[in-house]
Amino acid sequence: MHTRFLLGLAFLLIGLVPAQAETWQPSSGQVQIAIWPGAVPDAISAQKPESVVPVTGHGGWMQINDVSQPTMTVYPAKGLNTGAAVVVFPGGGFRVLAIDLEGTEICEWLTSRGITCVLLKYRVPGGNDYWDDKCQCRITPKIPRALQDAQRTIKLVRSKARELNLNPGKIGVIGFSAGGYLVAQTSNIFAPAYKPVDAVDRVSSRPDFAIALYPGHLCRSGGEFNSSIHVTKETPPTFLVQAWNDPVDPICNSILYASALNHAGVAAEIHFFAKGGHAFGLRDKEHPVAAWPSLVESWLKEVGVL
Question: What is the model's pTM?
Fold first, then answer.
Protein backbone atom coordinates (compact mmCIF):
# COMPACT_ATOMS: atom_id res chain seq x y z
CA MET A 1 0.00 0.00 0.00
CA HIS A 2 2.88 2.38 0.86
CA THR A 3 4.46 1.62 -2.52
CA ARG A 4 1.28 2.41 -4.51
CA PHE A 5 0.84 5.63 -2.56
CA LEU A 6 4.39 6.83 -3.15
CA LEU A 7 4.32 5.84 -6.80
CA GLY A 8 1.14 7.83 -7.30
CA LEU A 9 2.55 10.79 -5.38
CA ALA A 10 5.72 10.74 -7.44
CA PHE A 11 3.95 10.63 -10.80
CA LEU A 12 1.42 13.26 -9.74
CA LEU A 13 3.76 15.77 -8.14
CA ILE A 14 7.30 15.49 -9.29
CA GLY A 15 8.13 12.52 -11.49
CA LEU A 16 10.14 9.41 -10.94
CA VAL A 17 13.85 9.21 -11.58
CA PRO A 18 14.57 6.73 -14.39
CA ALA A 19 16.30 3.61 -13.12
CA GLN A 20 19.80 3.30 -14.55
CA ALA A 21 22.32 0.61 -13.78
CA GLU A 22 25.05 3.06 -12.75
CA THR A 23 22.90 5.21 -10.44
CA TRP A 24 22.01 4.46 -6.85
CA GLN A 25 18.59 2.89 -6.37
CA PRO A 26 16.75 2.41 -3.08
CA SER A 27 15.69 -1.01 -1.85
CA SER A 28 12.66 -2.73 -3.33
CA GLY A 29 9.41 -1.03 -2.37
CA GLN A 30 10.93 2.44 -2.03
CA VAL A 31 10.51 5.20 -4.60
CA GLN A 32 13.19 7.73 -5.53
CA ILE A 33 11.63 11.08 -6.41
CA ALA A 34 13.20 14.05 -8.21
CA ILE A 35 13.00 17.13 -5.98
CA TRP A 36 12.94 19.66 -8.83
CA PRO A 37 9.90 19.74 -11.17
CA GLY A 38 11.95 20.75 -14.20
CA ALA A 39 15.54 21.70 -14.85
CA VAL A 40 17.84 21.53 -11.84
CA PRO A 41 18.95 25.06 -10.90
CA ASP A 42 22.57 26.02 -11.56
CA ALA A 43 23.30 22.66 -13.18
CA ILE A 44 26.87 21.91 -14.21
CA SER A 45 27.29 21.02 -17.87
CA ALA A 46 29.42 18.09 -19.02
CA GLN A 47 29.41 16.44 -15.59
CA LYS A 48 30.42 12.80 -15.28
CA PRO A 49 27.52 10.35 -14.95
CA GLU A 50 26.54 9.24 -11.47
CA SER A 51 28.20 6.06 -10.23
CA VAL A 52 28.10 3.87 -7.14
CA VAL A 53 31.33 2.40 -5.73
CA PRO A 54 31.80 0.01 -2.78
CA VAL A 55 34.36 1.30 -0.29
CA THR A 56 36.27 -0.56 2.42
CA GLY A 57 36.55 0.82 5.94
CA HIS A 58 33.87 1.27 8.61
CA GLY A 59 32.72 -2.25 7.75
CA GLY A 60 32.29 -1.36 4.08
CA TRP A 61 29.96 1.26 2.65
CA MET A 62 28.51 2.48 -0.64
CA GLN A 63 29.82 5.71 -2.12
CA ILE A 64 27.85 7.72 -4.69
CA ASN A 65 29.90 9.89 -7.04
CA ASP A 66 28.95 12.77 -9.37
CA VAL A 67 25.32 13.28 -8.35
CA SER A 68 23.74 15.77 -10.75
CA GLN A 69 20.06 14.80 -10.35
CA PRO A 70 19.09 15.26 -6.69
CA THR A 71 16.35 13.03 -5.33
CA MET A 72 14.54 12.18 -2.13
CA THR A 73 13.35 8.77 -0.99
CA VAL A 74 10.54 8.56 1.56
CA TYR A 75 10.66 5.76 4.13
CA PRO A 76 7.29 5.60 5.96
CA ALA A 77 7.20 5.19 9.72
CA LYS A 78 6.81 1.65 10.98
CA GLY A 79 4.25 0.78 13.60
CA LEU A 80 2.79 3.80 15.39
CA ASN A 81 3.28 6.92 13.25
CA THR A 82 4.41 9.77 15.49
CA GLY A 83 3.71 12.36 12.79
CA ALA A 84 7.35 13.48 12.89
CA ALA A 85 9.68 13.38 9.90
CA VAL A 86 13.44 13.72 9.56
CA VAL A 87 15.30 14.65 6.38
CA VAL A 88 18.67 12.88 6.28
CA PHE A 89 21.80 14.50 4.83
CA PRO A 90 24.57 11.88 4.35
CA GLY A 91 28.18 12.98 4.58
CA GLY A 92 31.00 12.68 2.09
CA GLY A 93 32.90 15.96 2.10
CA PHE A 94 30.66 17.43 -0.64
CA ARG A 95 32.60 15.15 -3.00
CA VAL A 96 30.67 11.90 -2.57
CA LEU A 97 27.73 10.59 -0.51
CA ALA A 98 27.93 7.82 2.10
CA ILE A 99 24.47 6.68 1.13
CA ASP A 100 24.14 3.62 3.40
CA LEU A 101 26.45 4.33 6.35
CA GLU A 102 24.91 7.76 6.87
CA GLY A 103 21.70 7.33 4.91
CA THR A 104 19.66 4.15 4.58
CA GLU A 105 20.89 2.75 7.90
CA ILE A 106 19.80 5.95 9.65
CA CYS A 107 16.37 5.64 8.03
CA GLU A 108 16.02 2.06 9.31
CA TRP A 109 16.58 3.32 12.84
CA LEU A 110 14.26 6.34 12.53
CA THR A 111 11.36 4.47 10.93
CA SER A 112 11.58 1.79 13.63
CA ARG A 113 10.83 4.60 16.10
CA GLY A 114 7.69 5.73 14.27
CA ILE A 115 9.43 8.60 12.44
CA THR A 116 9.08 9.10 8.70
CA CYS A 117 12.52 9.31 7.12
CA VAL A 118 13.32 11.26 3.96
CA LEU A 119 16.74 10.44 2.50
CA LEU A 120 18.16 13.25 0.37
CA LYS A 121 20.59 12.42 -2.42
CA TYR A 122 21.94 15.94 -2.87
CA ARG A 123 24.28 17.14 -5.57
CA VAL A 124 27.98 16.37 -5.32
CA PRO A 125 29.13 17.74 -8.68
CA GLY A 126 32.36 15.89 -9.35
CA GLY A 127 34.42 17.81 -6.81
CA ASN A 128 34.33 19.73 -3.56
CA ASP A 129 32.59 23.10 -3.95
CA TYR A 130 33.66 23.92 -0.39
CA TRP A 131 37.43 23.60 -0.89
CA ASP A 132 39.79 25.98 -2.67
CA ASP A 133 42.89 24.30 -4.10
CA LYS A 134 44.74 27.61 -4.40
CA CYS A 135 44.56 28.57 -0.74
CA GLN A 136 44.17 24.98 0.47
CA CYS A 137 41.34 26.17 2.66
CA ARG A 138 37.59 25.73 3.11
CA ILE A 139 35.37 28.33 1.50
CA THR A 140 31.70 29.12 1.09
CA PRO A 141 30.83 28.44 -2.56
CA LYS A 142 29.22 31.12 -4.72
CA ILE A 143 26.51 28.62 -5.74
CA PRO A 144 25.50 26.45 -2.74
CA ARG A 145 23.97 23.59 -4.73
CA ALA A 146 23.74 21.21 -1.77
CA LEU A 147 21.94 23.88 0.28
CA GLN A 148 19.53 24.48 -2.61
CA ASP A 149 18.66 20.77 -2.62
CA ALA A 150 18.34 20.65 1.17
CA GLN A 151 16.03 23.67 1.36
CA ARG A 152 13.87 22.37 -1.48
CA THR A 153 13.49 18.96 0.17
CA ILE A 154 12.38 20.39 3.51
CA LYS A 155 9.83 22.55 1.68
CA LEU A 156 8.55 19.55 -0.28
CA VAL A 157 8.12 17.39 2.80
CA ARG A 158 6.32 20.15 4.70
CA SER A 159 4.09 20.99 1.72
CA LYS A 160 3.01 17.35 1.43
CA ALA A 161 2.54 16.75 5.16
CA ARG A 162 -1.11 15.75 4.76
CA GLU A 163 -0.38 13.21 2.01
CA LEU A 164 2.51 11.77 4.03
CA ASN A 165 0.50 11.75 7.28
CA LEU A 166 2.86 14.16 9.00
CA ASN A 167 2.66 17.07 11.41
CA PRO A 168 4.03 20.05 9.42
CA GLY A 169 5.41 21.46 12.67
CA LYS A 170 7.55 18.38 13.32
CA ILE A 171 9.86 18.32 10.30
CA GLY A 172 13.49 18.00 11.36
CA VAL A 173 16.90 17.32 9.86
CA ILE A 174 19.86 15.09 10.69
CA GLY A 175 23.24 15.23 9.00
CA PHE A 176 26.70 13.72 9.22
CA SER A 177 30.03 15.44 8.54
CA ALA A 178 29.37 17.56 5.42
CA GLY A 179 25.71 16.72 6.02
CA GLY A 180 26.12 18.13 9.52
CA TYR A 181 27.14 21.40 7.91
CA LEU A 182 23.94 21.27 5.84
CA VAL A 183 22.09 20.92 9.15
CA ALA A 184 23.72 24.16 10.35
CA GLN A 185 22.97 25.89 7.05
CA THR A 186 19.30 24.92 6.90
CA SER A 187 18.95 25.78 10.61
CA ASN A 188 20.18 29.33 10.05
CA ILE A 189 19.71 30.26 6.38
CA PHE A 190 16.01 30.64 5.69
CA ALA A 191 16.18 32.85 2.62
CA PRO A 192 15.93 30.66 -0.50
CA ALA A 193 19.30 29.85 -2.06
CA TYR A 194 17.59 29.58 -5.46
CA LYS A 195 14.88 31.32 -7.46
CA PRO A 196 11.39 29.96 -6.64
CA VAL A 197 10.16 27.42 -9.17
CA ASP A 198 6.60 26.64 -8.01
CA ALA A 199 4.08 27.00 -5.17
CA VAL A 200 6.11 24.66 -2.94
CA ASP A 201 8.71 27.39 -2.57
CA ARG A 202 6.27 29.54 -0.63
CA VAL A 203 6.60 27.04 2.24
CA SER A 204 9.23 27.52 4.96
CA SER A 205 12.48 25.57 4.76
CA ARG A 206 13.27 26.09 8.45
CA PRO A 207 13.53 22.73 10.24
CA ASP A 208 11.65 22.38 13.52
CA PHE A 209 14.54 20.52 15.14
CA ALA A 210 18.08 19.70 14.09
CA ILE A 211 20.60 16.93 14.77
CA ALA A 212 24.23 17.22 13.64
CA LEU A 213 26.87 14.53 14.01
CA TYR A 214 30.57 15.35 13.61
CA PRO A 215 29.80 18.43 11.45
CA GLY A 216 32.47 20.01 9.27
CA HIS A 217 33.12 23.42 7.67
CA LEU A 218 32.05 25.35 10.79
CA CYS A 219 35.54 25.80 12.23
CA ARG A 220 37.69 27.83 9.84
CA SER A 221 41.35 28.85 9.72
CA GLY A 222 42.62 30.16 13.04
CA GLY A 223 39.77 28.56 14.93
CA GLU A 224 37.24 31.13 13.71
CA PHE A 225 33.54 30.30 13.42
CA ASN A 226 32.20 30.22 9.86
CA SER A 227 31.01 33.77 9.19
CA SER A 228 28.28 32.63 6.79
CA ILE A 229 26.37 30.94 9.64
CA HIS A 230 24.43 33.51 11.70
CA VAL A 231 22.86 31.79 14.69
CA THR A 232 19.82 33.60 16.10
CA LYS A 233 16.91 32.89 18.39
CA GLU A 234 15.11 31.55 15.30
CA THR A 235 17.57 28.65 15.04
CA PRO A 236 15.70 25.44 15.92
CA PRO A 237 16.50 23.28 18.97
CA THR A 238 19.71 21.45 18.17
CA PHE A 239 21.43 18.21 19.18
CA LEU A 240 25.19 17.84 18.58
CA VAL A 241 27.36 14.71 18.76
CA GLN A 242 31.09 14.40 18.08
CA ALA A 243 34.06 12.30 19.15
CA TRP A 244 37.03 14.14 20.64
CA ASN A 245 39.46 12.05 18.58
CA ASP A 246 37.79 12.85 15.23
CA PRO A 247 40.70 12.91 12.72
CA VAL A 248 38.69 14.46 9.86
CA ASP A 249 36.57 17.28 11.30
CA PRO A 250 38.19 18.76 14.41
CA ILE A 251 36.18 18.98 17.60
CA CYS A 252 36.24 22.78 17.28
CA ASN A 253 33.42 22.50 14.72
CA SER A 254 30.97 21.39 17.39
CA ILE A 255 32.51 23.54 20.13
CA LEU A 256 32.15 26.76 18.12
CA TYR A 257 28.63 25.89 17.00
CA ALA A 258 27.61 25.03 20.56
CA SER A 259 28.99 28.37 21.73
CA ALA A 260 27.05 30.23 19.02
CA LEU A 261 23.86 28.41 19.98
CA ASN A 262 24.45 29.32 23.62
CA HIS A 263 25.01 33.01 22.88
CA ALA A 264 21.82 33.14 20.80
CA GLY A 265 19.78 31.46 23.55
CA VAL A 266 18.95 28.40 21.43
CA ALA A 267 17.95 25.25 23.31
CA ALA A 268 20.63 22.66 22.64
CA GLU A 269 22.01 19.37 23.88
CA ILE A 270 25.68 18.62 23.26
CA HIS A 271 27.52 15.30 23.65
CA PHE A 272 31.27 14.87 23.27
CA PHE A 273 32.75 11.40 23.49
CA ALA A 274 36.41 10.52 24.05
CA LYS A 275 36.54 7.98 21.22
CA GLY A 276 34.62 7.21 18.08
CA GLY A 277 36.67 8.86 15.38
CA HIS A 278 34.81 10.03 12.30
CA ALA A 279 31.89 8.56 10.34
CA PHE A 280 30.87 6.13 13.07
CA GLY A 281 27.20 6.31 12.13
CA LEU A 282 25.33 3.51 13.86
CA ARG A 283 28.17 1.02 13.52
CA ASP A 284 30.42 1.76 16.50
CA LYS A 285 29.49 -0.83 19.14
CA GLU A 286 32.77 -0.70 21.10
CA HIS A 287 32.69 2.80 22.59
CA PRO A 288 30.19 4.86 24.62
CA VAL A 289 29.49 6.90 21.47
CA ALA A 290 27.21 4.00 20.50
CA ALA A 291 24.64 5.46 22.91
CA TRP A 292 23.95 8.50 20.75
CA PRO A 293 20.72 7.16 19.11
CA SER A 294 19.07 6.55 22.49
CA LEU A 295 20.21 10.00 23.62
CA VAL A 296 18.61 11.52 20.53
CA GLU A 297 15.36 9.67 21.22
CA SER A 298 15.27 10.96 24.80
CA TRP A 299 15.98 14.49 23.56
CA LEU A 300 13.19 14.30 20.97
CA LYS A 301 10.81 13.42 23.80
CA GLU A 302 12.22 16.27 25.91
CA VAL A 303 11.60 18.86 23.17
CA GLY A 304 8.11 17.54 22.41
CA VAL A 305 8.74 15.91 19.03
CA LEU A 306 7.99 12.38 20.24
Answer: 0.92
